[in-house]
Amino acid sequence: MAAASGFAESGADLDLVGIQKRFPGFTAIEHLDLTIPAGSFFALLGPSGCGKTTTLRLVAGLEDPTTGQVLIGGKDVTKLRPFERPVNTVFQSYALFPHMTVLENVAFGLRRRKIADPIDKAHEALRLVELDHLATRKPQQLSGGQQQRVALARALVNRPALLLLDEPLGALDLKLRRQMQIELKSIQESVGLTFLHVTHDQEEAMTMADTVAVMNKGRIEQMGAPEVLYELPRTAFVANFLGQSNLFTGPVAGTTADAISVDVAGVKVVVPKSRAARHTGTVTIGVRPEKLALHTEKPATDASTNALGPGRVIDVSFTGVSTQYLVDIPGVGNVTVFTQNMGFGPTAHEGAEVWVSWHVEHGFGLEDDPDAEPRFSPDADTQMLAVQTKNELQSELEAEEA
């Protein structure tokens, strides 16, 4: 997709310094220091209730931080109102005016700000998203994907230093969502602006972003390139939120110059030291399901391979490109295996005795201390947090009325 000449300006850095955000009864953001370089595509990924949308609202000026500063291009904008910030937001709902044409929707903000040549600039923005040929249509005459691109054009036409994307593809079907992921990345590379994308969709974040920050209960658990976060998760939360992982906990039973051996239900499982955050004591190690091989006979072992079993296949799920197996291994628990469907029919059927194996270099070791007190209570999932927050707010209201 060719860049439109008027949209070649670079974006600006975003710096969040010492951000904390408290609401009555709970803390949405504990402590956040974050720098997003100019011109990057940055994804803030996490489940509902983790603080990612609150972070976006703080950047947009729709919320004020309890403490901390928001800087855009080195300028402190913490006290500025939303319309005074060089920021635009694309929402999941698109928020298009139904009585206006596509062109009028895109030109609306320019007219309101009394910018010269609003129609020409609106056409330029529509050409960027390849919708100028539909400029005279009304939003209800467009598909969901086309409406999403109109909303994007309306945000880009203002030449913001920073574009905020709040779950922008959530209302689209799977095929269209994947198509728009590619188009959004292409547009971002064309215009060179800074994109901050908030999403709970792992694939969406990994497909588009240069850098992904995984957020959990008010903190960033891990940040980096998508492939690094996937291949080397540092915590159990990241390992299980960004894809699936098989995690095993046990004491370190031996070390060499290059690797550690962990006792997993009496079997020594080897992990390279370079891929393990902890090398002594009780540790948690893991391997991704697609890295595992499934065997109907005990595999030959060597220094480059780990193996566990025998176990029983307790579930077989056909997913199209792959088959998912759930294997119950005594002393270990359930192990998930993904195998690519190269032939017809499953490798093993439910009830079959199997072993699993994987190359040593595919394992990873977490920095979590299995013996440490958890930072959060075990039942503090997002639903429980929402109920707790509601109850606390109700109690405070009743106390004020009393």
Quick synopsis:
This protein is an alpha+beta fold and 402 residues long. It is built from nine helices and 20 strands. It has two domains: 5-230, Rossmann fold (3-Layer(aba) Sandwich), CATH 3.40.50.300; 244-365, OB fold (Dihydrolipoamide Acetyltransferase, E2P) (Beta Barrel), CATH 2.40.50.
Secondary structure: number of strands: 20
What is the tally of helical segments? Answer: 9
CATH architecture of the largest domain: 3-Layer(aba) Sandwich
Which CATH class of the largest domain? Alpha Beta
How is the main sheet built?
A: 6 strands, mixed
What's the average pLDDT? Answer: 86
Model description:
The protein has 402 residues and is α+β, with helices and mostly antiparallel strands. The protein has 2 domains: 5-230, Rossmann fold; 244-365, RNA polymerase II/Efflux pump adaptor protein, barrel-sandwich hybrid domain (OB fold (Dihydrolipoamide Acetyltransferase, E2P), Beta Barrel). The protein is built from 9 helices and 20 strands. It has helices at residues 52-60, 102-112, 118-128, 144-156, 174-191, 202-208, 226-231, 236-241, 382-401; strands at residues 14-23, 26-36, 41-45, 67-72, 75-76, 87-91, 162-166, 194-199, 211-216, 219-224, 246-255, 259-264, 267-272, 282-287, 293-295, 305-318, 322-329, 333-340, 353-359, 364-365. The strands form 4 sheets. A 6-stranded mixed β-sheet has the order 6-7-8-3-9-10, with helices on both faces. Strand 16 and strand 17 form a beta hairpin. Helix 2 (102-112) crosses helix 3 (118-128), helix 2 (102-112) runs parallel beside helix 4 and helix 3 (118-128) crosses helix 4. The longest helix has 20 residues, at 382-401.
